[in-house]
Amino acid sequence: MLFQRILQQTIETALFKGKVIIVYGARRTGKTTLVRQILKKYPENAEYINCELQEYQEALNTTNSVLLKDFIGKNRLIVLDEAQHIHNIGLILKVLVDTFPHVQFIATGSSSFDLSSKISEPLTGRLRQYLLLPLSVEELREHFSLIDLQAMLPNILRFGLYPQVFTAAGNEKIEELTDISNNYLYKDILQFENLKKPELISGLLKAIALQTGSEASYNELAQLTGTNVHTVRRYLELLEKNFIIFRLSSFSRNLRKEINKSQKFFFYDLGIRNALIRNYNEPEIRTDTGSLWENFCISERIKYNENHRNFANTYFWRTYDQKEIDYLEEGAGELKCFEFKYNPKTKSKIPAEFLTTYPGSSFSVITPNNFYELIGIS
Does residue 190 belong to any structural domain of this protein? Predict the structure, then answer.
């Protein structure tokens, strides 16, 4: 089953406008499939280049315009897949876009910490950047009714939404997740950062997985993994830049009681989170169902904003006396507040202190009965 990625249309509207298109995303999220779908629309004058192959790394390791012109030929669209493998890729792309302005270049990369550091400065003013995350519920909507999607929620909480995992049958889902988590998850971090302790990365991720939805303490994580706070900070940054986890910071503006220097970590994909702790049980018999639901809702909202280019600031909110809001978005002069409850019968309302301090804020409670409101369907 092929899913139409929302980001494809967004990218297509940006083509041939003098900008290099950069598509980031973790491995196995569908970047190659996405760019190949775009290439199909230009069958006569487009080329796909796998930059993991040595022959292309050597061919592109030059800024000689004559050699590059010979390499490009008559193509109008060039895709450089996994472009972080090309030495000096930012400088080479700058030469390409300046020398051949009629050619559209698309580069993909599975790790922003390497690709962006090589690209951002040489291509200042010459690029558009996009992030392709695992499948979203909104993208499933093309094939399934809301009732079908609601019935799928327990399995999504268990196995996540990596394309090949979602379409796999039965225990094949676990096989796919095991393959991704064992063979792909840390590949770029270990390769490009020359880290010598993959077991530390795994241990840190497991610790984060067990604390999903809770405020994370660097000191506690350092103790759990047997390392120091500096290393924990560094590895967490790399895991974020490799699109495995993301963080929410605490929101604070006015109240003295507000916690203003805290953070929570979540996974872009729950299947990966569950693979790390080897727990694929049904939500109804788990002790972490609330955390799973919170992570699912926040990650779906992150996908929605990313796919639709909604550039909102994202937070959680809590006071020292334990009043809290799971998720906040700040954008266009307004605050949108969300609480996530897996049990639809659970009551929830916005804390009075928050509403008094930030009047005009909206508030929604998201349950399996109205999850679709996260993706703009009401």
Answer: yes
